[in-house]
Amino acid sequence: MDRIDSMDRGIQRHTNTYIHAVISLLKQYDRPLSFEEIRDKTRIDLHNNYMLLQSIKKNPRIVSTHNTLMFKPLYSIRSVEDMREVMKKLNGEEGLEMSKLMDSPVNIAPFVDELKKNNEIIVLSDLDGSEVVFWNDMQENPVAPEIKDLWSQVRISTYHDLIRELNTAGLKTEKVENVKKRSTIKIKKDRRSRRRIRITNTHVKGLDLSGVQDEG
């Protein structure tokens, strides 16, 4: 029984490999491929493998006829304008996985680069390396060149110009200086009391007691 289960798992792995190979091939073409073309490019004969063909047809993105298969991408993007319209529909509320956008019938990498350059989309990378694309709905309209020229002609007054204008208007300017007083730190002297020693053995020969005060 274990041997049969192992054989079934092996067959399933081979089946999944074949399905992946066929679908990956279909994604490369923006048209249906005949079974003969699929066999020539993948060595997978769909004419004589009914179960494999039915498994491939279960994919919701596969469009099949009597003897052809075609991959229908979730987003049919063929130009930068197509991608712009797809992203605009999101209104910046949610993002699209880059992998889903890459399923388009043509290479959309140049479209992504152009929209990023124009600050129309934002691409965020996740920890696993996957990327999510967001529409930048906070972008501002470009300023007219005439407005830019007028802005560049506006003169910003210097400090001395401001002082002169204030004086002309009769307004006085005052310079306030804050002098911070230093707090005086008082150092208390440690008064140590002299310890008095009472000497009793005054009869010891050679003992000089002239500098010792006797405790009375």
Summarize the structure.
The protein is α+β, with helices and mostly antiparallel strands and 216 residues long. 38% of the residues lie in helices and 10% in strands. Helix 4 crosses helix 6.
Structural write-up:
This is Transcription initiation factor TFIIE subunit beta. GO terms for molecular function: DNA binding; TFIIH-class transcription factor complex binding; translation initiation factor activity. Recruits TFIIH to the initiation complex and stimulates the RNA polymerase II C-terminal domain kinase and DNA-dependent ATPase activities of TFIIH. Both TFIIH and TFIIE are required for promoter clearance by RNA polymerase. This protein is an alpha+beta fold and 216 residues long. The protein has three domains: 4-71, Arc Repressor Mutant, subunit A, CATH 1.10.10; 80-135, Arc Repressor Mutant, subunit A, CATH 1.10.10; 144-173, no CATH class. 38% of the residues lie in helices and 10% in strands. It has helices at residues 2-27, 35-42, 50-57, 80-88, 98-101, 109-117, 145-152, 159-168; strands at 33-34, 62-64, 68-71, 96-97, 121-125, 131-135. The strands form two sheets. The chain has a three-stranded antiparallel sheet. A three-stranded antiparallel sheet has the order 4-6-5. 10% of the residues are buried.
Task: Write out key terms for the chains shown.
Arc Repressor Mutant, subunit A, 216 residues, alpha+beta, 10% strand, 3-stranded antiparallel β-sheet, 38% helix, rod-shaped
